[in-house]
């Protein structure tokens, strides 16, 4: 199996895959980079107490936002905190931050639906995000609340050596649509070798749709958008393959 996550984020998934009996290698096609906040964004952090809600749609957003918060000398006050899923929530809890809202299904649409039920009209909502993040929550709340987005990290393309890829690959793990795109660019002409016989294990339907667009005939889509969900989906796929 090939894991396309950023190098600093792949160890956990690779370890779990190996525990499950798979041979896994890292082929990091992207990197996560904390951005340099512009003066407007820095001024925003100084007015953090004006916000009623902080909404985190990724663990990367949590890590980079908390770094900026620490560097600015600001502290969270009485804001309510929403997290898209358990990994994002865990990053917050590691810093002693309590979670007020987490959806049952770990995706942006579900987070947006739950927030629409919880956020009071006229509330101020701050969403620390990455440069490629969709505006799902913002779009859902814009007629209910005053929503501000702040980009705290960028997802950038990495170009790992093609020699890092093993000769035979049964599964390639994609945790985002951008990882599918960047894998295609990193693999070059060699990507055609995988489209027919290699399964693209995708963290959800949006990522699966991108894998389909890029030519992967075999696709696995996790219904639980976590590392554990990916592993469960892969196991289920291969059980069905061997019994069919």
TrEMBL record:
Keywords: Lyase, Porphyrin biosynthesis. Pathway: Porphyrin-containing compound metabolism; protoporphyrin-IX biosynthesis; coproporphyrinogen-III from 5-aminolevulinate: step 3/4. It catalyses: hydroxymethylbilane = uroporphyrinogen III + H2O. Its EC number is 4.2.1.75. GO terms for molecular function: uroporphyrinogen-III synthase activity. It holds the Pfam family HEM4. CDD domains: HemD. The keyword Lyase applies. InterPro entries: 4pyrrol_syn_uPrphyn_synt_sf, 4pyrrol_synth_uPrphyn_synth, UROS/Hem4. Belongs to the uroporphyrinogen-III synthase family. Catalyzes cyclization of the linear tetrapyrrole, hydroxymethylbilane, to the macrocyclic uroporphyrinogen III. PANTHER family: UROPORPHYRINOGEN-III SYNTHASE, CHLOROPLASTIC. This is Uroporphyrinogen-III synthase. It comes from Fictibacillus terranigra. The lineage of its organism: Bacteria, Bacillati, Bacillota, Bacilli, Bacillales.
């Amino acid at each position: 199996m090939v894991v396309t996550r950023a190098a600093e984020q792949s160890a956990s998934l690779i370890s779990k895959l190996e525990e499950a009996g798979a041979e896994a290698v890292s082929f990091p096609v992207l990197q996560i980079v904390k951005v340099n906040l512009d003066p407007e964004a820095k001024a925003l952090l100084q007015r953090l107490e004006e916000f009623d809600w902080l909404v985190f749609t990724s663990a990367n957003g949590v890590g980079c936002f908390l770094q900026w918060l620490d560097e600015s000398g600001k502290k969270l006050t009485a804001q309510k905190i929403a997290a898209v899923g358990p990994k994002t929530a865990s990053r917050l809890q590691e810093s002693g931050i309590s979670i007020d809202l987490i959806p049952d299904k770990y995706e942006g649409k579900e987070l947006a639906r739950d927030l629409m039920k919880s956020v009071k009209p006229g509330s101020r909502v701050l969403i620390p995000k990455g440069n490629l993040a969709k505006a799902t929550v913002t779009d859902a709340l814009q007629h209910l609340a005053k929503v501000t987005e702040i980009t705290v990290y960028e997802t950038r393309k990495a170009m790992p050596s093609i020699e890092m890829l093993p000769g035979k690959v049964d599964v390639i793990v994609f945790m985002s649509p951008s990882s599918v795109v960047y894998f295609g660019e990193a693999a070059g002409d060699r990507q055609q070798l995988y489209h027919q016989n290699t399964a693209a294990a995708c963290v959800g339907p949006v990522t699966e749709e991108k894998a389909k667009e890029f030519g992967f005939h075999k696709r696995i889509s996790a219904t639980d958008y976590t590392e554990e969900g990916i592993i469960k989906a892969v196991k289920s796929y291969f059980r069905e393959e061997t019994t069919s």
